[in-house]
């Protein structure tokens, strides 16, 4: 039975559970091996039953898919591999009827090299107004054979590519993703129009890709080691852009979530001032190792940095760019760091799964909203994608040392006994699924009260039905070393044991939910969490 959808206020985003759909790998409706909107529409009842408030779709626009859709050729067209604009409109409306809001993904820092603007810029040549929409520059060196500056790409290698007429263009990611020039009024105008285009189609929110990278120091200076931040990160003028975006969103009641990777808490919080973005992803929490002290500090820092600007925190364990949670938590190093990803890292999946279950209860009990990446509710591990099937440019640009991000993007298993585990009618999806994934299939987990899916369904049901969850205050309770214990309103208590010893639970009236069995004497085993009504 689907949980009833309670009426939500305009502030729904302050405590929502938002499910991230990677459309290529969610469900394949037309049987061509690639996930699509038809697949999502058919599975909306699954999302309603899971109990999520909103769905964020990673880019579904026309794209050569060089970077999984983050290379957009047209923001107003759905890629034919995924469906049509009419289908997207139906999907948004159908989801809304089930109480699920839609968040689309806008990629303002760059476009695809197949975008009409970039093609026109290439054709028009040096000095043309078309080139002013991007960062084209002559090279350095006697014959302009050296890139204009030394900026390193986010995906390894240089950020500059030379075109046949001798000029170079800037791309913080792959050469197929030229950066837009945000000092140009047409770039600003176009993106505000794109925002309106999607708000008018009923979307409730927009996720902003690479949100801190848009503005570059106009001098494009070399990166001087030791300065506080790179000349392409978090430039002050960026806030002006988000202030005018906020005015657009406010006209529709829309909300933003920014992809803001910034170590400096004060700089991060500037994006969340009341006239800028509503929320931003909490990467501090996502990258934090499974250690009580570090997690507690991350939670405290998060709440402290959000409080002055009045923005709710978000709690994120995983997304389409990082190692799956059960895998990460099953390794010797439980932190996430792009720089240390390697093939063949030993992993204890039972341990990782136990911790991921506890982490789910932890993040769902913290004040604010929660992001849940597709497949996390199934406890999917990072898949080992065979070398000859890897598609992610991060792998290739690293010279092959970084396995890339395909391992967390493998198509979902829905039915244990069906070809491609029910992902689609075709046996071979775009990325191969591991041979032992039948056990993770939705139909198998649905009948098992001890499954990860059952835990998530029950946790989300309680989070809606019981008081004390979502936005609001929290207070730490005294606890033993390695134990996190905190109280929310209505005497809601969450205890997580990250120590090696069993932990005593505080006095309580009711056990709402446990991530695993308690010891016979009522103590909490290691790597286990509970929700109590105290
Ligand atoms: C962040 C996205 O999450 C990632 O998948 C993408 O590769 C980069 N931004 C570039 O758009």
From TrEMBL:
Origin: domain of life: Bacteria
Glycosyl hydrolase family 13 catalytic domain boundaries: 20-409
InterPro entries from the UniProt entry: GH, GH13_cat_dom, O16G_dom_2
Keywords from the UniProt entry: Glycosidase, Hydrolase
Presence of keyword Hydrolase: yes
Top-level enzyme category: hydrolase
SUPFAM superfamilies: (Trans)glycosidases (SSF51445)
Enzyme Commission number: 3.2.1.-
GO MF annotations in UniProt: hydrolase activity, acting on glycosyl bonds
Family stated for the protein in its record: Belongs to the glycosyl hydrolase 13 family.
Protein name: Glycoside hydrolase family 13 protein
Species, as recorded: Streptomyces cinereospinus
């Amino acid at each position: 039975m689907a949980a009833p959808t309670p009426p939500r206020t305009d502030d729904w985003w302050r405590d929502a559970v938002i499910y991230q759909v990677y459309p290529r790998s969610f469900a394949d409706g037309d049987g061509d091996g690639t996930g699509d909107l038809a697949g999502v529409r058919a599975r909306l009842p699954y999302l309603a039953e899971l109990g999520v408030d909103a769905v964020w779709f990673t880019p579904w626009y026309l794209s050569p898919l060089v970077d999984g859709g983050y290379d957009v050729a047209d923001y107003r067209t759905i890629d034919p591999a995924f469906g049509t604009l009419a289908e997207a409109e139906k999907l948004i409306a159908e989801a809304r009827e089930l109480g699920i809001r839609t968040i689309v993904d806008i990629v303002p820092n760059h476009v695809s090299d197949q975008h009409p603007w970039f093609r026109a810029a290439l054709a028009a040549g040096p000095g043309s107004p078309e080139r002013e929409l991007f960062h084209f520059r002559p090279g350095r060196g006697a014959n302009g054979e050296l890139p204009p500056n030394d900026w390193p790409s986010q995906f390894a290698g240089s950020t500059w590519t030379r075109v046949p007429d001798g000029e170079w263009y800037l791309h913080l990611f792959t050469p197929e993703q030229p950066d837009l020039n945000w000092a140009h009024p047409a770039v600003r105008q176009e993106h505000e129009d794109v925002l309106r285009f999607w708000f008018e189609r009923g979307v409730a929110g927009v996720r902003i890709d690479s949100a801190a990278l848009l503005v570059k120091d106009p001098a494009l200076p070399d990166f001087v080691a030791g300065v506080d931040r790179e000349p392409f990160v978090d430039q002050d003028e960026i806030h002006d852009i988000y202030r005018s975006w906020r005015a657009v969103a406010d006209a529709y009641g829309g909300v933003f979530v920014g992809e803001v990777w910034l170590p400096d808490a004060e700089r991060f919080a500037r994006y969340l001032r009341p006239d800028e973005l509503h929320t931003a992803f909490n990467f501090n929490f996502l990258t934090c190792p499974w250690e009580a002290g570090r997690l507690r500090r991350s939670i405290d820092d998060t709440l402290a940095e959000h409080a002055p600007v009045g923005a709710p925190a978000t709690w994120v364990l995983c997304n389409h760019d990082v190692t799956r949670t059960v895998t990460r938590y099953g390794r010797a190093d439980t932190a996430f760091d792009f720089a240390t990803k390697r093939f063949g890292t030993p992993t204890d999946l039972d341990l990782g799964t136990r911790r991921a279950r506890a982490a789910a209860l932890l993040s769902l009990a913290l004040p604010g909203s929660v992001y849940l990446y597709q497949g996390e509710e199934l406890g999917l591990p990072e898949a080992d994608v065979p070398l000859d099937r890897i598609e992610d440019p991060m792998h290739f640009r690293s010279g092959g040392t970084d396995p890339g991000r395909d391992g967390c993007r493998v198509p979902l298993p829905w039915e244990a006994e069906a070809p491609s585990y029910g992902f689609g009618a075709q046996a071979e999806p775009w990325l191969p699924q591991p041979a032992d994934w039948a056990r993770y299939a939705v139909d198998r987990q649905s009948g098992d009260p001890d499954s990860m899916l059952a835990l998530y369904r029950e946790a989300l049901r309680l989070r809606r039905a019981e008081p004390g969850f979502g936005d609001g205050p929290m207070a730490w309770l005294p606890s033993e070393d390695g134990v996190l214990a905190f109280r929310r309103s209505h005497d809601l208590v969450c205890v997580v044991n990250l120590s090696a010893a069993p932990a005593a639970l505080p006095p309580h009236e009711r056990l709402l939910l446990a991530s695993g069995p308690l010891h016979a004497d009522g103590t909490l085993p290691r790597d286990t969490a509970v929700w109590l009504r105290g």
